[in-house]
Amino acid sequence: MIARRRLLSRLPGGLLAGLAAASPPRAARAEAPLSGAAALLWEALRQRARGRTLRFHLTIQDPGLERFLGWFAATLSGRHGLELEVVPLRDEAEAAARVAGGEGVDLVALDMATLSTLRRRNLLLPARSALPHAPLPLPGMPEADFGTPWHGGALVLVHDAARVPEPPASMLALPDWARARPGRLAHPPPRHALGAAFLLQALYELVPHPRILASPATERNFTLLTAPFWEWYASLRPLLWRQGQDFPEGATALRRLLREGEIGLMPALDPVALPRLVGAREWPAASRVHALGRGSMAYAALLAIPRNAAQPEAAMLAADFLLSPEAQAMLADPRLLGRLPPPSPRPRPEAVLTTPPPPDMPRLPEPHPSWALRLREEWERRMGLFAQ
Fold first, then answer.
1. Transmembrane ranges (predicted)?
2. How large is the average pLDDT for residues 54-76?
3. Is pLDDT at 302 greater than 80 in this prediction?
């Protein structure tokens, strides 16, 4: 009892450090439950979280995700006495603004570039190492302890085969393809994770070697290595939907344009979801996934807890449940979502529960987040110049 009181007394100021220090080695966690000090600390956290309301901020661009969140909310309430309030976001820019503004964010889903920005501003808690189900950190992820991957994706092109029987073989071929079919391609702005992934996929095909993008972008190498990319984009932009003067706000808007026949080709990050979204009439019946020749860029969706979260214990409990084999199996179920497992340095023991990508879809590693940040800033600067 005395030992338990001491552990409880450490929670307000030393919760994260105590949990991280008391947890078993990460490789053993999936095979054995927590025990000893780690189990006591985690149980104390559960008790502190009970009865709280957790505000989870994320973008919702898929009706399947809404159903998953309904299951998630019911499970948290039934097992842990936690109430979940889902706060939909427009894009990554709004996610960053909400966290920076202290707008009641307890748990937030981010892309790697946005997480990197918030980490540099000291706005996130280093919670990953304290979560029992957290996977090993991603290689090359500079802020590994401040964000935990909860699902993955892969950049592909989706085309309506009834209108576009032959999609382009690569991103480099897109301008020629679009020249023969002006207005039939659209992509979101890069403040959306999907828009950033579309631009990064093209950058991958235009740099001399993919390994270059694993290192941080600097003023010098960004200017030098993206020069061919901006030439490529300048040739493509006037051929986009609405002459590249307007950009659909996310995957939901893109699917509507494809469904209504305004476009014939769009980027996507969820290749396994095609049958479900066709069945739900989100995509046309003749929709097909097209993987790009050099490989599809991997994408990691991350969970983070703001430093000023009102309910950090509830956020840790919810984040850890999202990483559990049970929740990962629900995320991977193609009937519900069909999300790819997050990129990992080695397979996790529960990886058998997840949905693998199609066998002909090699995945390129996600670039260092500094490339996405600089690409987003430069794209917005150039679009502002075009609009003047």
1. none
2. 95
3. yes
Note the CATH number of domain 47-152+300-343.
3.40.190.10
Helix, strand, coil: what percent of the chain each, to 5? 50, 15, 35
248, 261 contact by CB (below 8 A):
no
Distance CA 266, CA 276 (A): 17
pLDDT at 55 over 60: yes
DSSP annotation string for 182-204: TT-B----TTSHHHHHHHHHHHH
Range(s) of the chain covered by CATH 3.40.190.10? 47-152+300-343, 154-298+368-383
Output the pLDDT for position 100: 93
Reported pTM: 0.88
Tokens 């996610």 sit on residue? 95
Q: Do residues 208 and 278 make contact, with C-beta atoms less than 8 angstroms apart?
A: no
CA atoms lying within 13 Å on the CB side of residue 26 = 14
Q: Which CATH architecture has domain 154-298+368-383?
A: 3-Layer(aba) Sandwich (3.40)
H or E element at residue 118:
helix 112-120
How far apart, in Å, are the Cα atoms of 113 and each of 201, 213, 274, 325? 15, 13, 27, 27
Query: In the chain, where do the E strands start and end?
Result: 53-59, 83-89, 107-110, 148-154, 156-160, 265-268, 287-290, 296-304, 363-364
